[in-house]
Amino acid sequence: MARLWALLALMLSLSGCGLAETGGAAAAGASAQAQQAAQAKTTEERVKQQVDAAYQQAADQRAAAESQGQ
């Protein structure tokens, strides 16, 4: 009976270690995903600014071409 309790205690302690590692890995993964999301948002904003600048440049060029044609 004592061996059974010792075996049970050993199994529980080993399973607890696995849970701690799993929780730590999940936290690290969530942190990495949060960083990736922040970088993606920054990249998206930069691309939007570049597209807006390109549209503005094209509009300026059209306006300049129209004023030179008149």
Number of strands: 0
Largest sheet: none
What is the first-to-last residue Cα distance? 103 Å
Strand content: under 5%
Shape: rod-shaped
Look at the helices and sheets and give the structural class: mainly alpha
Mean pLDDT: 81
Order of helices and strands: H
Task: Based on the model shown, name its key terms.
97% helix
Task: Write up what this structure looks like.
The chain has 70 residues and is mainly α. Helix content is 97%, strand content 0%. It has 1 helix and no strands. It is rod-shaped and about 105 Å long. The chain starts with a helix and ends with a helix.
Write the layout of secondary structure elements.
Elements: H1 2-69
Summarize the structure.
By secondary structure, the protein is an all-alpha fold. It is built from one helix and no strands.
